[in-house]
Design a protein that fits this description.
Layout (H helix, E strand, L loop, with lengths): L6 E4 L9 H16 L3 E4 L13 H12 L22 H13 L3 E4 L3 H10 L21 H9 L5 E4 L6 E6 L3 E6 L7 E3 L7 H11 L4 E5 L6 H11 L7 E5 L2 E2 L9 H7 L8 E2 L6 E2 L2 H4 L3 H9 L14 H7 L10 E2 L2 H14 L2 H14 L7 H11 L8 H10 L16 H16 L5 H14 L4 H13 L7 H8 L1 H15 L2
Parallel strand pairs: 1-2, 8-9, 10-13
Antiparallel strand pairs: 3-4, 4-7, 5-6, 11-12
Helix pairs in contact: 1-11, 6-7, 10-12, 13-14, 14-15, 16-17, 16-20, 17-19, 18-20
Length: 506
């Protein structure tokens, strides 16, 4: 490992929703930084103004805040290496591009969009490269005087890297080991666009250098760009200053065939974005994990395990434990299939694991959104304790908990009526009288009274449990029926039984 201070960065483009693959990149950066007492930086790569989407940057930071992955430096958090938006660093890039031209490692290209389009029609799979550059309009084919005239006249142009012929380029990836390329298979990428903005290739190298980034984690889809970046490091700053790279495996579709996309989520009915994203152009909202009812602890835990494990069978990790256990040598080289059922399992386990107090404000908020104001926090705590085993999503608490605080509007009376008879009617009449008189309102006492009256009336308790449940909650769901009655209290329990008895008389 490098001896310089660990500084890692997540560098998203503000173009839309934050894909779970992006959050996993954030997570691995964060874990590595915290484990090594380093800094985690967020740098916004907004140099492609044609792809810029209003509100996307703010959305990215909201997602990170929800996940609990707070940067040490960013446009919001400041730091000594700003600005943290590439669009605000524009003046940095041209001088480096010009330096490359002066050294003979890059060149001006004056080809118009129309001329490039004509070439694409003329040559199938046309690439601007060492094989075609000699037939194009650039500073390698034009005279020095002609180039000077074009530049003095502010003729639109780009600066391209001049890829060498048949050169062996290699680096050691922290996950994949030795990776090699042949320079002849790589085209002359644009480094500086006609509007003066850098492309990703130039900007990422310059900014990683100026921000003293020690390690760079990115998706494996960036591997083909590695030879260009290695050469830029070599030409501008020396390879000894290049960050150590780790190219993370892709998150794959559930069937393993290709990278997981938003379209797959839409098609298969699960989220792929961290939080809801509303496209400002179409006004279309894509559901996120947060709004689906995922806990941030579960979402982060699930992402950590998509391509990594600690070498044991353990799967449930709080964030701090992930910081302690994470290691790049246990990150898989191959892609990780996304399994939504497994994601739901993580969420269910975390709902069960979290202390009831940690869930209270969230459940209270969900109930309030459903028109139920909870005034008794102690009762809510007891409700969460007995219902959380039944909740896969936070949103499940709405169904599982709301009837404790608001009498159900709909009663599944049809589930009771077919087997209802006078004997059962008499049983519940007697149960009401007993419950009214009892001094003890604990679940165990209520169940004891219930069973004793059933025995006296020679009715199997099993035949009476479903009617009692429906009387109290409205349907065939919920935790233990006597636990429900205990929390509802004497007055409300008796009132609900009486209400359903009156419905059964009609």
């Amino acid at each position: 490992m490098s001896t310089k201070k660990v500084r890692v960065r997540f560098a998203p483009s503000p173009t839309g929703g934050l894909h779970l693959g992006g959050v996993r990149t954030v997570l691995y950066n964060y874990l590595f930084a915290k484990q090594n007492n380093g800094d985690f930086i967020v740098r916004i790569e907004d140099t492609d103004q044609t792809r810029f989407v209003a509100g996307a940057e703010e959305y990215i930071f909201k997602c990170l805040e929800w996940c609990g992955l707070t940067p040490d430096e960013s446009p919001l958090h400041g730091g000594s290496y700003g600005p943290y938006r590439q669009s605000e660093r524009k003046e940095n890039y041209r001088k480096y591009a010009e330096e490359l031209v002066e050294k003979g490692f890059a060149y001006y290209a004056f080809d118009t969009a129309e001329e490039l389009e004509a070439k694409r029609k003329e040559i199938a799979n046309f690439q601007y490269s060492q094989h075609t550059r000699s037939s194009m309009k650039n500073s390698l084919t034009l005279s020095a005087a002609a180039v000077e005239t074009l530049l003095n006249n502010h003729t639109p142009h780009v600066i391209r890297i001049k890829m060498p012929e048949n050169e062996h380029i290699s680096f050691t990836d922290m996950i994949r080991g030795e990776v090699s390329f042949n320079s002849s298979q790589v085209d002359d990428k644009v480094l500086l666009k006609a509007d003066g903005m850098p492309t990703y290739h130039l900007a990422v190298v310059v900014d990683d250098h100026l921000m003293q980034i020690s390690h760079a984690f990115r998706g494996e889809e960036w591997l083909p760009s590695a030879p260009v970046h290695i050469l830029l490091w070599q030409y501008l700053f020396g390879l000894e200053n290049m960050p150590q790279w780790a190219h993370l495996p892709l998150i794959l579709k559930p069937d393993g065939n290709g990278k997981l996309s938003k379209r797959d989520g839409d098609r298969l009915g699960f989220p792929v974005f961290a939080m809801d994203w509303t496209d400002p152009k179409t006004n279309e909202t894509t559901t996120g994990f947060k709004e689906k009812g995922f806990l941030p602890e579960a979402f982060v835990n699930m992402l950590a395990m998509l391509g990594w494990n600690d070498g044991t069978d353990k799967e449930i990790f709080p964030l701090q434990e992930l910081v302690e256990k994470f290691s790049l040598d246990r990150v898989h080289k191959g892609g990780a299939k996304f399994d939504y059922e497994k994601a739901k399992w993580f969420n269910h386990e975390w709902i069960k694991k979290l202390p009831t107090a940690n869930l209270q404000w969230q459940v209270a908020g969900l109930l309030k959104a459903g028109g139920i104001q909870v005034s008794d926090e102690h009762a809510l705590e007891k409700v969460i304790a007995i219902t959380k085993e039944r909740c896969t999503f936070l949103n499940d608490f709405t169904e599982q908990a709301s009837f404790f605080f608001k009498r159900p509007a709909i009663i599944d009376i049809d589930a009771v009526r077919p087997k209802w008879n006078e004997q059962k009617n008499l049983f519940f009449t007697e149960l009401i009288r007993t419950y009214r008189l009892t001094q003890f309102w604990q679940a165990a006492d209520l169940e004891k009274d219930f069973k004793e009256i059933a025995a006296v009336n020679t009715i199997k308790p099993g035949e009476l449990m479903l009617p009692l449940r429906i009387m109290l909650v409205g349907g065939k769901f919920g935790p233990g029926v006597f636990e429900i009655a205990e929390i509802l209290g004497k007055e409300e329990t008796v009132s609900r039984i009486e209400h359903v008895l009156s419905l059964l008389e009609h």
